[in-house]
Amino acid sequence: MSTIESDMLGYEERGTVGGKGGAAGSSRKAAQKNWSPPDAETQRKLNRLIKDIGTAMLTTVGPDGSLRSRPMVTQTAGLENGELWFFTADDSGKVAEIEAEHEVNLAYAEPKEQRYVSLSGTAALKRDPARARRLWNSEVKAWFPGGPEDPHLALLRVRVHTAEYWDAPSGKMASLIALAKSTLTGESAGEVGEHEKVMLSR
């Protein structure tokens, strides 16, 4: 029987091992793309949209090709040079999945303010004691009692290469009605806010 416990950033099986089939090869090719961080204006825009949300849903690809999502607490105020950082246990299921397929998605949502952001990128497990100490906070200690030097503590870095966001105007009720109509009928929601897709890879 599997032991289900929290790794601080989402409930999942610990110690599971992902397959290393054909997906790994395609992931490695994706990870080798030329990548550069977004320009300062784009980064400020994305950080404004995800600020104060804190928790994102991280989606990874399982060994059988299925998609799996779990909540992750962002450990930085936003993107830093096009990257987002998270704490994780090095024996969590998502780590095995990411080692086999680096492509992931992060989804941030703030329904009250109608801010929705989808970030796609490549994830990698990192051992960076200096950064771990800089990002360390009291909430993390509950899951890693050994502190920043805990043997199972690792950092998950996501380099964002595509961002898509929906940012609604102040007329929230009108926007909600329009969005509901679009969902029910499949018709365009019209001017419900700003929607843009930004390609960050070059």
Report what the structure shows.
The protein is globular, with a radius of gyration of 18 Å. It is built from six helices and nine strands. The protein has about 200 residues and is an alpha+beta fold. It has a single domain, classed as Electron Transport, Fmn-binding Protein, Chain A (Pnp Oxidase, Chain A), CATH 2.30.110.10. Strands 3, 4, 5, 6, 7, 8 and 9 form a seven-stranded antiparallel beta sheet that branches. A two-stranded antiparallel sheet has the order 1-2. The N terminus is likely disordered.
Q: What count of domains describes the coordinates?
A: 1
Q: Helical region count?
A: 6
CATH superfamily: Electron Transport, Fmn-binding Protein, Chain A
CATH class term = Mainly Beta
Distance between the amino and carboxyl termini: 46 Å
What is the architecture at the second tier of CATH? Roll
Query: What pattern of helices and strands is seen along the backbone?
Result: EEHHEEEHEEHHEHE
Q: Are there runs of 5+ residues with pLDDT below 50, and where?
A: 1-32, 170-178
Radius of gyration, in angstroms, nearest whole number: 18 Å
Average of the residue pLDDT scores: 75
CATH topology: Pnp Oxidase, Chain A
Main structural class: alpha+beta
Work out the oligomeric state of the chains in this entry. Answer: single chain
Range of helix content: 25-40%
Beta-strand content estimate: 25-35%
Tell me how many strands there are: 9
Query: Largest sheet, if any?
Result: 7 strands, antiparallel
Shape: globular
